[in-house]
Design a protein that fits this description.
By secondary structure, this protein is α+β, with helices and mostly antiparallel strands. Helix content is about 40%, strand content about 20%. It has a 4-stranded mixed sheet, covered by helices on one side.
Length: about 120
């Protein structure tokens, strides 16, 4: 019999695959994927055609991450990843929310990226 944790993880994996089936990044429009834990949030721009990470930013990289609420910090991560993308000549991306609902910190990352000029 499967434990509650195993069931929760398998449901999360099914949701992640459901989202990834519909979202794919190209070199012109890379995939902006977001991962979160209780303490940190991470954003990456990925070109699925070549399998390369174009840009990466996380609260682990930033000493300023401790300032503000988790949602405010997530918005700053979105702004920073958009700045890194613009520096590499990328203006559009597709949003991969992973297994998370488009809500709270995940939504804040997307809004921060849009505020900084990235079209999602």
């Amino acid at each position: 019999m499967a434990s509650q944790l195993e069931l929760k993880q398998s449901r999360g994996e099914r949701r992640r695959l459901h989202v990834r089936h519909r979202v794919a990044g190209t070199s012109d429009r890379p995939r902006l994927t977001v991962a979160k834990s209780l303490r940190n949030i991470t954003a990456q721009l990925i070109d699925d055609g070549s399998g390369q990470t174009i840009a990466y930013w996380s609260t682990v990289n930033s000493k300023e991450a401790a300032k503000g609420t988790k949602t405010d910090v997530a918005r700053e991560v979105g702004k920073k990843i958009a700045e890194l993308a613009k520096a590499k000549g990328i203006t559009k991306a597709v949003f991969d929310r992973n297994r998370f609902r488009y809500h709270g910190r995940i939504k804040a990352v997307a809004e921060g990226a849009r505020e900084a000029g990235l079209t999602i």
